Amino acid sequence: MKLKGSEILMECLLEQEVDTIFGYPGGTILNVYDSLVKYRDRINHILTAHEQGASHAADGYARSTGKVGVAFSTSGPGATNLTTGVATAYMDSSPVVFISCNVADNLIGKDSFQEVDSTGVMLPITKSNFQVTDVKKLAGTVRRAFAIARSGRPGPVFIDILKNVTAEEAEYEFIPKQKHKEAGVLKAVYDRNMVDYHKPEIDEDDINKLVEMIGESEKPMLICGGGVVRGRAHEEFNKFANLADSPTAVTVMGGGGMNGRNPLVTGMIGMHGSQASNIGVDECDLLIAVGCRFSDRVALDPETFAAKAKIVHIDIDRSEINKNVQTDHHIVGDAKRVLEKLNERLSQQDHSEWKKFVFSYPTETEYEDGGDTLNPKQLCSTIAKLMPEDTMVATDVGQHQMWAIQHFHFDYPGQLLTSGGFGTMGFGLGAAIGAKVGNPDKTVIHIAGDGSFRMNCNELTTVEHYKLPIITFVFNNGTLGMVRQWQNLIYKGNISETNMDRGPDFVKLAEAYGLKGRRVSNQEELADAIKDALASGSGYIIDCMLDIDEMVRPMVGGGSHITDFMRT
Amino acid sequence: MEKMEFAKRQTLALLVDNEPGVLSQIARLFSRKGYNIEAFAAGPTENPGVTRITIDVLADEPHTELLCNQLNKLYPVRSVKWLNAESSIYRELMLIKVKVSGSEQRNDVIQLANIFRAQIIDVSLETLTLGLAGDAEKLSAMEKILSEFETLEIARTGVVAIERGSATINDESKERGEFNYGKNVL
Q: b/e for A396-408, b at 16 or more Cβ within 10 A?
């Protein structure tokens, strides 16, 4: 069947069972949007306010559903506006296929209107990227891009299609996703792998060695990282932790990889980790990290990190092994399969004494009861109490993010959507849109700081237009709180350019976008507003007033030993 | 720079898919990690669609290992081998154009070329162009001696290298399987 390039693209998306795209049209991608009309019954396009919003929405969709997210943009500024979202997805290993069109082949390389070397720009922030200059290669490229995005350690893939390619015709045959291994480009890739490479079997000796190490350990500690979440290995991980009877620290990206109410959970680890987590890691004799890359926010000082322990690293990406922290043993493989194998062989352990020691330290920070005013913990626990238990939480970046992760309990992968690696302020609203679109039956809330929210609050228009009942909680302390905290603790209180003593009025902003909003400064008002928001069934902003000097506690300085808690 | 303290010249051999953008992806990796490529040679292999690249870089051993790991992670990279100086053979080709005035100078240059077993590839009334293959030290030695004359131009290919004996870059190992694990789960 002969089809135009733009139609081939649509058909390829259907092959991948894509039913939702986030995007923004423009000059070079016109042909694609022209064809989109024909596919409207099968492909739902969400028009965002800005390409960055589309990029975060596609990412949030991917993280929350486990499927590959898709975002469209036009050339030039369209593509560069995607980049923050692409880098965010890259750092957190989120599978998203970003598709942008570029100027036609007679204009390329001539600094034409809205031309940019998109694949060059995307190179360091994608797992792989392609420019399609021949319509005959379009279908194969799209199939390959999706395969790469979701395989192994997932990540974003960028496809740049020249405008003329979207208009030209080529033979196309619909091949269902399951058959891609038997056809075309992917067959070639697959054949090469099967011939050249080992089959992806997990090494039995490696598994046995770890089982032995666990048997010998008296003070084991686990770290649940983002790999558990991406690999949807939460059930296996919970079982593993229970069998090993080991206290378990959870990284920012690992939120939802371990049942948050499991009594083995010691809370967050690292810079804002709980005392139980950080002291546990410092004192343990065996540290098993699953799907965690020992970033500088976790293993603050790699030299002294878990110095008394044998470190075991389980990861799908071999290049992470010994990258930041030197390990004693590693297993390369998909978290789910590795944990399944471990669970088969591991007998029930008992570490009551060790647990008693670890849990003698707090797993959560208590804040002085502010009486009637709001404090971070009260705020989070009230929200958690009044929301359904399986509420999805998207956050921005800063103090509110740390508070939310410290005080909410996440139970399943995709429940927490946060920019852990890249630390993208303004991520939350787009991510919440993606999560709500991908999970219409779930309640989705967006936790923001006043600084982060200002960055991409333009997406309120998307919330309103598509009638997405997302509740945004703005943790409003009138400052860039995390930066202020550093200025207070590290820069001797020299406050520089972090005061957010300016508009807009978020309640009025909500109204301007056709949504509802309320400002709250005590528990009672908060509870009322939440009830009203849930009842309204529409997008809602709750502007929660916090003290400007509230800090995220505990805190360990960057590069310091993990138990050197600062006086906050 | 801390990482240059124990730095020495390391040679990495790579097999990569012959696709657009691969070279820039690899070059970018070195600059992103703060390394300068000292020499770079790329060419076809026995397998169409696969290019072999030899890269020389100044780095210490732990950082070279990290570089290898990061290279291995790139999707189009099929194999990476960090070559050991004792067990590998290195060759480079140099073309050097020397200005000669008069037969005496010409004879001197020809004699030196013979000592180095260099070939005289081109000759004009004022110049001689020599070609010499060998390891980097040999080429540098000839270059230095010929600097007695007026050197007009030098072109060097960058080192290519291969292991001695039966070992090849294609040899399977547990580590190679681990690196390709993620690429393999299509």
A: bbbbbbbbbbbbb
